[in-house]
Please model this.
Amino acid sequence: MRYDIAVVGNDEAAFEIMCIAGAAGQRSVGILPEQRHSAWMVSLALRRLVEQLLVDRSQTRQKLFARSGTPRLLHRLLATAMTAEVMDHIAMLEGLGVDVLVGESRLQTRNNIAVTSGIECRRTLIQADNIVIGSGTRRTAMHRPLGLVPFHQAESLLSGSHLPKALCLLGGDEFGAGFAALMSLFGVETRLLTGDGDSSAMLELADAAGVTIRHRAADLGWNHDNLRPCNGADVVDCRRAVGFTDHLGLPGIGIEPDEHGQLWCAANLETWCSGIFGIGDVVGFSSDISKHPTDQAHRILNRITHRIRKPHFLRLHTGTHAKL
Model:
């Protein structure tokens, strides 16, 4: 089936444009990733899981964590929360008439997307007159200054054999605060370094989970002589966000992301390739673009409305037609 608009990714702005396009009656499809989730979607799953764990602070749960509070258990709980979050969003989209596919996407041409899904690696080819990239960002550690202990990425703590005893986490946005709260609930002595202006409900959850929150490095016991945390804690860096585009095959169709993995777009959010748009956190340029997801969604839809070949009609019981 050919669609008016295909949206790739599960960033906040991606869902916004899918909802608006679906409500407007356009033939639209959302292609959600199986594994390469945006930082925004991971933050939602972290919030869901942390809230659940804060409600249940029973002795049974504490004994469970003491006996098997390993990265494997944490990873399984987070995966369950992620699945629940994705299913809620799929139900919302389908209720608006948006088709949904779950799989890993790769753009083949300007109008074609190959979607690979499932253990069997089933491959589906989607055709669309307009494609919107809403894959969002992922977190990656910054390059460490000379002499500083290595920075870990958050995901690396979920792949080891054990959790650290102490953790110093850099970055207090929704992702960083949520990850810090989760680590603390699993018995890790967690300290969070955040900016003076950072304020969110996730920070409040982190505080409730027992995270030590500070705004200055000296308040966390950092020794500036050798640039090491004096308590020997592992350091996790959640400050750097880069565009989650390296798996989409964009250079093959003439779109080169910048050094941060983000897309250069015109004021209407169209890339150098006609009919291919960026939206949300994946957009790194231009300065004329509003950052609000709803504003971005309307800007794109205003651009592509005149390109839709045929209006869609709804057959009424009277036998007449009404344009949507």
Observations:
- Confidence is low (pLDDT under 50) at residues 310-324.
- Residues 29 and 99 are 5 Å apart (CA to CA).
